[in-house]
Amino acid sequence: MDPHKFHGKDIPHIKLDPKMTIEELVEVFARSGFNGRQLGEAAKLYAKMIKENATICLTVSGALTPVGFGGIIKTLIERGFIDWIITTGANVYHEDHFAWGLPIKQGHFDVDDMKLYENEIVRIRDVYIKFYETLEAEDQVIQKMFGKDFPDKPFTTAEFCNLMGKISKEKSKHPEKSFITTAYDYDVPVYISTMKDSSLALNLAVQRLNGKIYNLDFVREIIEQAAILFNSKKSGIVELGGGVPKNTAQQTGPLLDQILRRNDGGQDYIIQITDARPDTGGLSGATLQEGKSWGKVQDAHEGIVTVYADATIAFPILALYVLSNQKPRKPKRLYKKLNKFYENLSNDYFKKPVKTKSKSKRK
Questions:
Q1: How many CA atoms lie less than 13 Å away from 220 in the CB half-sphere?
Q2: What is the pLDDT of residues 68-83, one digit of tens each?
Q3: Are 14 and 28 in contact (CB under 8 A)?
Q4: Is 296 a catalytic residue?
Q5: Helix 311-325 and helix 22-30, axial crossing angle in degrees, nearest 10
């Protein structure tokens, strides 16, 4: 459809009904304009990804677990609507507070932080976390998890999180209150895109000073992530915010095409919820259309939606929409398939001649 012609759906004179369902509300968004329309179209695209059995990656930046959004992620995993995750170490660290029953409370944003410091309260905008009862208690948990009993061999962050989920499930007070334990149950790989930039890595310092060496195999990790794309008939990403998690998921296309010369063409679908601007040149605000020039996405015109909004507002709407109208999918259990996926990509790379750039073609 030529976007330069006067055609398209009529804009309705919106009428709200107290008995409206989430599906009807999303339809209101989709038939309006601006970012309301984008949110409606994003929700429908997420439903399409599920219907077409695409392999779906969720990327999470920002502080979404301290505000309780790990519960939404947990539910989406249980329904089979998330197959693998890339997030920051902070989101994994803070999510574990809920499993161990460590206190997090609503606080205030217009405060004197000097007084909060004196009262041993750590602030994330309007969320309060106790310094000793929460952070130091969590630190002790992490140090014990990955202390002397942690294997002295190269590991990926997916293996790190899988072990964390296993231990939290077996020993924490509320294992049902963590998407990390749910990811362990459903074999959903959870990768930490910036391991050293978090309290998880800070807590490894204690053991390192005692002589324990941690060998993070980050190259295997990026190959595994590309192998997930390579072994998927269709693949998509739901991006909450930008940052390193966004790029880590999107760089799977360039690894396959630019480095391994496969010409797969990148992701079939990407939904981006961001408040970052594209004109500053940062990755967080980079448009999905720009990603096409790098081979991060199959098409610059179809299968991509950007919603300029706060993820704490848009994500629950997006999630509730698909939970309301999509049947649960059988878990893909990618974690147990990572070795096989890796081998498939490796074998393909060594048996096929280097390709010249041509039309994208997915395996």
A1: 14
A2: 999 999 999 999 999 9
A3: yes
A4: yes
A5: 120
Contact by Cβ (8 Å): 100, 173? yes
Max Cα distance, the chain (Å): 70
Instruction: Specify the amino acid at residue 214.
Output: Y
Supply 45's token pair.
């695209």
The full set of domains in the chain, from first to last, is 22-100+135-351 (3.40.910.10)
Q: What token pair was written down for 81? A: 């609507």
Residue carrying the six token digits 């994208």: 360
**Which residue's entry shows tokens 């999470």?**
60
Tell me how far apart the alpha carbons of residues 66 and 73 are, in angstroms, rounded to a whole number: 13
Q: Name the active-site residue from 130, 177, 292, 296.
A: 296
How far apart are the C-alpha atoms of 20 and 92, rounded to whole Å? Answer: 35
The pLDDT tens digits for 149-180 are: 899 999 999 999 999 999 999 999 999 999 99
Q: What pTM does this model have? A: 0.95
CB 325 within 8 A of CB 26: no
pLDDT of residue 357: 46
Q: How many helices (H) and strands (E) does the chain have?
A: 16, 9
How far apart CA 197 and CA 88 sit, in angstroms, is 8
According to DSSP, the β-strands at 235-240 and 84-87 are unpaired
Bridge partners of 185? none
Q: Helix, strand, or coil here: 86?
A: strand
Query: CB 88: neighbour CB atoms within 10 A?
Result: 26
Partners of 218 in beta bridges: none
Tokens 């299968």 sit on residue: 303
